[in-house]
Amino acid sequence: MNATRPSPDPTVLSNLDRAIARGVAWLAGSQRADGEFDVYASLAPDLTLGCNLDPSIFPTAVMAQALGHVPEADGPRGRALAFLVSERDRFGLWRHWARRNPLSASLPPDLDDTACASDALGRGGYDPGTNREILLGNRDRHGRFRTWLVPGTGWTGHDRLTLTASQLRHIPVYVKFFQSTSASLDDVDAVVNANVIHYLGEGDHVRPVVAWLKTIIEEGREAQCDRWYDTPCVVRYFISRALRKLAPDARPLMTARLAETALSGGESAFETALTACSLLDWDLLPHDLIHTLLADQGEDGTWQRQALYHGGRARRPGGGFANPVPDTPHWGSDGLTTAFCLEAIARYRAISGAT
């Protein structure tokens, strides 16, 4: 890994272009007519057992963000953005499950889905909506963003008060949700915060979140900082992309941490792609990791599925989280892994001088 920019190699360029073309073709062919990308829920983190389709917003939002780095993917990305627009509520917010999912109305809107969908839309030329006031009003006393948008967690601002009033009739449903899951009204999660500031951009709201994220990386607590994410390379991916834009002074910290963890890339193409993207955030060229991704691409143009996030875990009284219980669902798909792999390869192609 280094920042040297080699002269373009026609063979390397051809291999990168071919991998991207095959992956994009598969995504375009597998995408639903309304623009949604399929995601699966499974009790196995590697999604090898009992996978069931589970229509959800977050995977399509994150895939649209990743595909924003891939010029060849403008078609599938555009259809994904149209799907996100169709799923947005009147306050500019999103829930985890898509409307066609029978469970959609059983949970409140959240900042993770809302931030990633809004960011994808904004970067894709769409109006991301008027949700900034609502998100900025959903912070704790330390200035960190709460995960859930529910009555009583920030009675500030006209938009927030209007939202709160509209939610009052759903209180029984929300009570059942929080009683039957590991979620808590006062959840404050690191990846969620990274995604929120990545969307909102610069402002006074950034400072406390950046300080928290830097501490997590410095102390190596990636696996114990978020209820919904426990794979370290996933956490680093989201934190890295936020810090790259909003805290460039974090470069020594991030590059040192990545140097400790990125030697092998990961145990799967999914982890390799996320690690490569984090290195590319700081202009480091992960030559070996990209070559591994090229070698691991399937004949159909995809890379093997693995879970990106799960259904949560209990918070320990002294800090950190317990392991997910055995019946915790995990979400991922071939398409989600493929989008991350395409992001890594396309960004490598751009930054290495291969094009």
C-alpha end-to-end distance: 19 Å
User: Which CATH class applies here?
Assistant: Mainly Alpha
| SS summary, helix count | 14
Broad structural category: mainly alpha
- Note the run of SSEs as H and E: HEEHHHHHHHHHHHHEEH
Q: Give the count of structural domains.
A: 1
The helix fraction, in percent, is: 40-55%
Q: Beta-sheet strand percentage?
A: under 5%
Broad shape: globular
Describe the protein.
The chain has a four-stranded antiparallel β-sheet. The longest helix is centred in the N-terminal third of the chain and has 21 residues, at 10-30. It has a single domain, classed as Glycosyltransferase. The protein contains 14 helices and four strands. The protein is mainly alpha-helical. It has helices at 10-30, 57-67, 74-87, 111-123, 132-136, 158-167, 171-180, 190-200, 206-219, 232-246, 251-261, 269-281, 287-296, 334-351; strands at 40-42, 52-53, 307-310, 330-332. α1 runs antiparallel to α14 (334-351) and α2 packs parallel to α14 (334-351).
